[in-house]
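Backbones bend. We report:
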Amino acid sequence: MSLATETSTAEEKTVYSVCGLLQFSKHYAGQLIVSVLFLLLAFGQKLFSNTFSIDTQGIIQNEDSLYKSWFELERFGLVVFKKLSGTYQFNNALASFTMVVFFGISAVIWSYLLCGSTTKAKLQPAFFMIPYVASPIFAEMLGFLLLGPEISVASFLVALSLMLWSNANRPKNYQRC
């Protein structure tokens, strides 16, 4: 096998697409379901109950002063994102729901990114997704409901941008599904 053939097959394996994501999801459906169960074990209480975290008490009392303090902490991107997404007025149920849903989506997208767009990957997605959704670091960050949805969306967008960047650096002669 020549070097050109090896290079072209390596390049074909790393082309990311919606069709590839659907094939990936179909091939690893069992592992995705197990990972969703672990996500629900870790964050099911936030999803199905109306719990308040320590940071939500301040926004309920005086939201303008809290958002102004975020500018001092250089969190102006969060304030802009909250205004653009329509979550500037805090809704506890919506924040909990979007946090868990986008965190699950980001786990799937990251596993698709790391395991590749083919089903011949040696790395199994569950070996990444279960530690990802059960990570104590994420549990600490996502425990604060004011930042939880934004962290989940940001994680999803970072993985998506890496896939787009990878596709942009590929030759233009790859086949789409």
In short: The chain has ten helices and no strands. The mean pLDDT is 81. The first helix runs from residue 3 to 13. The CA atoms of residues 22 and 117 lie 10 Å apart.
